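This entry is retained here.
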Amino acid sequence: MGNTSGMIIICSDSVGETAEAVVRAAISQFDAEHVRLKRYSHVRHADELVPLMKEAASEKGFIAYTLVQPDLREAIKELAIQFNVRIVDVMGPMISAFVDTFASEPKRTPGLLHQLDEDYFRRVEAIEFTVDSDDGKDLHAMHRADLILLGVSRTSKTPLSIYLAHKGRKVVNCPIVPEMLPPEPLFHLPVSKIIALTMTPEHLWKVRTERLKSMGLPEHSRYASMERIQEELDYASGLYDRLGCKVIDVTDKAIEETASLIMEWM
């Protein structure tokens, strides 16, 4: 498989996130670390298409676009022929299929997917809350949280918290360490709000060892020793039993899979 380089220009009359997501999904199938992406958002007039078309031509790249206005769609097709640039219509085939199948006409309003509706603001609020409460920074926020995540170090608490926050859930994640007393609020919360994460000792050893390597630290520190890992897991297990909370084994589970289990539980 060859090593790909060049530029892909993303053009949208809205934000351009949809087109970029599709492009990045395609890039992942290639050795394309040298491919550059450049996004042009909120394009509203045909004359705005000319500079990006010239850039694509000079860089010998192509353009992926999501344009819903008919005049812009026609303009980019004409300019593509003029400048001999390949264009990819990300949204068009889906809209055409919808029209042909359901005999319905599109609204042709840019940015409907990203309108600032109530759900959007709820998710933003949840993300801000979760970031402020990461790794036990604000344990007083537990009473205002939708969910409390417990776990020893490197059981994916933070990425899972952020993922759930994007789904609109306010999350406090709390590290469990044998040398620290568990936060007192834990024992006064509804147990349905508490989810505990665990992992097999062997997998946790691999995760911690890789973490130390990435930080340039000695791999044989006590933090990554099997003895310490077992001590922490045993302590955490005892706490989970006291709380009577749900426990999820995240060994070899993707963040999305664990989040799905939690959402179902909630």
Notes: The radius of gyration is 25 Å. Residues 83 and 188 are 67 Å apart (CA to CA). The beta strands are 3-12, 31-40, 62-66, 86-89, 147-151, 171-175, 194-198, 246-249. The longest strand covers residues 3-12.
